[in-house]
Amino acid sequence: MFVLSNLLAATAQVLDVVLSVYYWIIIIRALLSWVNPDPFNPIVQLLQNLTEPVLAPVRKLLPFSLKFSVDLSPLIVLLGLIFLKSFLVRTLLDLSWRFR
């Protein structure tokens, strides 16, 4: 069972890193939206391509953000990422300890 335990622990660590990197990508995208960057810049396009598939559905669920002209979707996604890190990663780590 130690193999399954190690697999779960490694999966939790990789997931933790991936969620942390995506957290910072969302923050950078939100900060860049304040300065109106060049939309043809390859870095801006990369950030938009990485974040838009997650932010667009959240924007559809938040109709009141259009009234205030403030996009709250990055905040909602960041809260979701924090939840996933604290719930999913810890659950995988706890399961890995139980299989030892």
Give the overall shape. elongated
**Cα separation of the termini:** 7 Å
Report the C-alpha radius of gyration, rounded.
17 Å
Assign a percent range to the helix content. over 70%
How many β-strand stretches?
A: 0
Put simply, the count of helices is 4
The poorly predicted ranges are: none
Largest sheet: none
> What letter string, H or E per element, gives the SSE order?
HHHH
Number of domains: 1
Class from secondary-structure proportions: mainly alpha
Mean pLDDT: 91
Strand content: under 5%
Q: Mind explaining what this structure looks like?
A:
The protein is an all-alpha fold. The protein has one domain (2-98). Helices cover 84% and strands 0% of the residues. It has helices at 2-35, 42-61, 65-68, 73-98. The longest helix has 34 residues, at 2-35. The mean pLDDT is 91.
Helix and strand arrangement:
Blueprint: H1 2-35, H2 42-61, H3 65-68, H4 73-98
Quick take:
The chain has 100 residues and is mostly helical.
Features:
100 residues; mainly alpha; 84% helix; elongated
